[in-house]
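Margin note from the TA: students keep mixing up input and output lines. Inputs are the sequences; the output is the structure of the whole complex. Example:
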Amino acid sequence: MNLLLKDKVAVITGSSQGIGAGIAKAFASQGARVVINYRSNHRKADQLVDEIIEHGGKAIAIRADISEPSDIAQLFETTIEVFGRLDILVNNTGILEFEVLDAITPENLQAQIDTNLIGTILCTQKAAALMIKEGGSIINISATTSINPLPGTLVFSATKAAIDNITKVLSKELGPRNIRINTIAPGMTETEGSHEKGMMGSVFEQQNISLTPLGRIAQPEDIAKVAVFLASDDAAWVTGERIQVSGGQL
Amino acid sequence: MTLKLKDKVAVVTGASKGIGAGIAKAYASAGAKVVVNYAKDKDRAEKVVDHIIDLGGKAIAVQADVSKPADVERLFKEAITAFDKVDILVNNAGIYDVVMLEALTIEVLQANINTNLIGTILCAQKAVEVMGTDGGNIINISSTVSVNPMPGTLIYAATKAAIDNITKVLAKELGTKKIRVNTISPGITETEGSHEQGFMGGEWEAQLVEQVPLGRIGQPDDIAKVAVFLASDDAGWVTGERIQVAGGQI
């Protein structure tokens, strides 16, 4: 059987850890050359690149803050310099701040919107401009909360709902150029982030499990396998879709 | 790379032609043993089986009208007799009558409901009964019209909307048994049926293509590749979902 992403070039934003890192590894194991984008965690990004190369894959790490337009331009310029083309973009970078309405400040509001929403749009704009001859595949990482938001996720959920909508608009705009765009909406996933936020082993985790028909929380690979599918020709007739990857949790 | 459905047993209803035949062939080439169910068209069902066997796969044809409980019972009995187990059910059999409100008769109404809705439920019930402790997989074939119905699709679209809902209920009921349930909603697809109903080559096809961002109509293989993904462990964390496979058509 052929590798599903042989010789494709993929940029995965926010991929030094968590779901992004899982997607980067899965893409590389299917033959893609991957760009590991990170903002601050240089060490983890380098470790991931080493791990991919040890397994016979190809990867580079590029620093770029997705809330900074000039960083985004640099990210895609460097990608083209190194790999010569771009086939896949995964808009994975996102900030999740838990705060109820009273605690929202103009600063944390702006920070989430800059990264989650504006960053997604700007990365997509740059990527689509580079997907000229053979089209491409764009995957936006949303969340279950874009449809079923929990208390304390106001800004995060709003940006994710906006991303769901962007997917639909762009599938119509970019379809004639053979660029597909889809959303993956993961449920709670065990990552460095979920550990740091104290979600693991908490009542919150137990509640999540009890709401999940398949009876556990996700691992990054659960999400990554769906990303491989969407990026591959197996999903050639799938665009504008939102796939919730959450073990049945709503 | 291992075959995605190696040694799995799949029952595909209405698989003598069209999308069902496409799924049966794709499953066989992914390593599954396939029960090709048909209601009337024995010759075509046997052609699908011959095609699979010629390529080194395993398949049998089983006659059963899925709207008849005794037939459904026998379908699964014969599947078990031939292949010892059932891992995957694709509820694909469906009647598509284009009838405006004034022309709807109780007979047309009942026929659509019996096959599309009751048949789907009865097959799911039997399949779950025979699925073992490893769980299994059910895929319901719906349609774009379950969410965005066209004039003349009243009863067909209603049964498909009901199927979308059944997927969600069953995902919750069956999650603890490790049985995943998902919906595929194809747009217009070139099949024997679409030719017979006069959709192809005419003004109607041209109008439909205009609504498809990817700019063509679907082929059975476009749908079958998504059915392979959903039945495979790559979709292990996907249940209760409706994936529209329509080139971006709403």
